[in-house]
Design a protein that fits this description.
Layout (H helix, E strand, L loop, with lengths): L3 H9 L9 H14 L9 E6 L2 H12 L10 E5 L5 E2 L10 E5 L1 H8 L13 H12 L15
Antiparallel strand pairs: 1-2, 1-4, 2-3
Helix pairs in contact: 1-2
């Protein structure tokens, strides 16, 4: 794939990408941009969106305290310095609060067990391989074999 629009269109066709896979979509887009030396990447922020102030405040405290394990936000997107939001074509209007995080916080949060906030509709085992292959990127840092803890 040569264009960002192709990447986001592909991701938007994956079942439940915005119901448990938005963080993986954000990571995949980020890594695709990195691999393809997309100029826009230098201006990209990873943004956690919340519709719950408790989750937002808890994560702000955890980041300030240097913790890597964050509560799963309601949605994860990428945003350019000009305010353009990039994700797998999800329209999400529930935004109460937001903050930016680094790539390692994103990866650690993606690897948080489903019982801690991820929607289990998104099939990681099936879809992560498909995403990595189609975008020609590595998503090896994503844990696809975690147990659904209930």
């Amino acid at each position: 794939m040569k264009k960002l629009r192709e990447v986001t269109t592909f991701l938007s066709c994956i079942e439940a990408i915005n119901a448990g896979g938005c963080g993986i979509a954000a990571l995949a887009i980020y890594k695709w941009m990195e691999k393809n030396a997309i100029e826009m990447l230098k201006d990209i922020e990873i943004v956690f969106l919340y519709n719950d102030s408790w989750e937002y405040n808890t994560n702000c405290s955890r980041i300030q305290d240097g913790e890597n394990c964050l509560i799963v936000p309601a949605h994860i997107i990428l945003r350019t310095s000009k305010g353009k939001e990039i994700d797998a074509h999800c329209t999400w209007n529930g935004r109460e609060t937001e903050h930016t995080v680094g790539i390692q916080h994103l990866i650690n949060t993606i690897n948080t067990p489903v019982s801690n906030g991820w929607n289990n509709w998104f099939d990681r085992k099936e879809n992560i391989k498909k995403i990595a292959k189609k975008l020609d990127i590595s998503l090896d840092e994503v844990n696809v074999n975690y147990k659904h803890e209930y």
